[in-house]
């Protein structure tokens, strides 16, 4: 009975992992990439379809305003320019298109394209390879982005900005940091001046995008700020190839509010299940493997007033050319003649670092999606972080974490292993009873239960260690797959990426050996068929582990090795107790 239960649990582990792979293949499976061309900074206009307020159609990239628009006064001086504004900080290289002021390309300098390349990871881009951009502006009655003449073309001071040229200022903690501002100006002939400013801070991914409306006209100005992410249906560039499997996490839209912290929206559902929510302190994002881009609505500030967080309308939609768009719009802002108003939002595009995301908006850190086992996964990640702070290597951190987990579970698992050791000791007696009682199964069962009671053996307790390890195993898998800190993290020698499969298959083979040794310490099934199935388990799991992340296999090897030590010590102890008891009985 005990052996069948253990085999059933091992089989369940195999089936669960296999179904997990099938689910990934179905939802995030590999899509054959189109023929790619060398990426350039920008090769097409990402704002070709213009909004007209209430008359906006499905071809509109920019969101529809909630008020009717009028014919806009156009810029009288600036010609349409294809020159991009280049901004480089210590974390990324970014390009802004003066037409509309959209961010059309971001290269993350601290993250490689892949483990075999020194090229930076491209987060946003608009070229022959892919369309993924961050758009923002002012729409509505007088908003220039609603003009029938197209997106506004901003004037700019220079085409190249660098954080090295920025002046150091003090932050709220009194620490000196460099802050870089990139202003762009749009003027109309009737006295409206709009200053769009991008603010970058040293060591920070978030960018504050501010629109300042200076009304020198004779009438009031009305408009709304919008911020949105526009992406095609191309595959996730952060997806990892695991041999015959292509594994990835969620690719699609996401949004959150203080009441509903984290919600996912697949690209396929952008039309069928459109997002339409009004909320304050909300956010919208596009999520991919290891990285995220997000808009967090900010404040509205009128002349000589304090900034006030506004209730934003969160929306998603499909464009006519099947682009996926998710974003927000602010309430209508009225700027009376002779006054000034400002409205801003924060834009984040970079790695999913939980400590940074949780400070930007409630629930944004949950884009690091650990699935339904997130409480266990979160604890495992915190443990890995702690050990990494000591040893500075994620591979050794996994080993230390495994030791810690085994120490915590040691008392509970020891009871199970002691029961299994007793089962091993009484195995000859059970074989004798089976031969003695032959086909009398009822008598055999009665004698066997009496033996269990006399020896204080629980035949099902051997299943407990496996049951304890299953959620930890799966949770650690999600930690390795979702935590950008472990992306391309080396351990030693041939293991240069713990989040990818072992290229030489050494770790899976070692895992198979440790699993075989561990099973040899367990009581062997009396039934020959069960024994054969039991012996095949290490081979099955070895083959399956060939395509799992090396960090996960490393955990399993360490876990098995400690289990072998623990179980070996307990087996010797139980055997000694058995010998002493027999000697004591013989002396009587």
UniProtKB/TrEMBL annotation:
Which cell locations does it reside in?
Cell inner membrane; Cell membrane
Pfam families tied to this protein = 60KD_IMP (PF02096), YidC_periplas (PF14849)
Q: How does it sit in the membrane?
A: Multi-pass membrane protein
Which GO terms of the molecular function aspect are on file?
membrane insertase activity
Keywords of this entry? Cell membrane, Chaperone, Membrane, Protein transport, Transmembrane, Transmembrane helix, Transport
Domain of life, per UniProt, equals: Bacteria
Does the UniProt entry include the keyword Transmembrane? yes
Residue span(s) of domain Membrane insertase YidC N-terminal: 85-381
Record-level GO BP terms = protein insertion into membrane; protein transport
Where is the major localization of this protein?
A: membrane
Q: Give the Membrane insertase YidC/Oxa/ALB C-terminal domain ranges.
A: 394-572
The GO cellular component terms are:
plasma membrane
Q: Does the keyword Lyase apply?
A: no
The record, for InterPro entries, names:
Membr_insert_YidC, Membr_insert_YidC_N, YidC/ALB3/OXA1/COX18, YidC/Oxa/ALB_C, YidC_ALB_C, YidC_periplasmic_sf
User: Which stretches are transmembrane?
Assistant: 7-24, 394-413, 457-480, 538-557
Q: What does this protein do?
A: Required for the insertion and/or proper folding and/or complex formation of integral membrane proteins into the membrane. Involved in integration of membrane proteins that insert both dependently and independently of the Sec translocase complex, as well as at least some lipoproteins. Aids folding of multispanning membrane proteins.
> How does this protein assemble?
Interacts with the Sec translocase complex via SecD. Specifically interacts with transmembrane segments of nascent integral membrane proteins during membrane integration.
> Which protein family is named in the record?
Belongs to the OXA1/ALB3/YidC family. Type 1 subfamily.
Protein name in the entry? Membrane protein insertase YidC
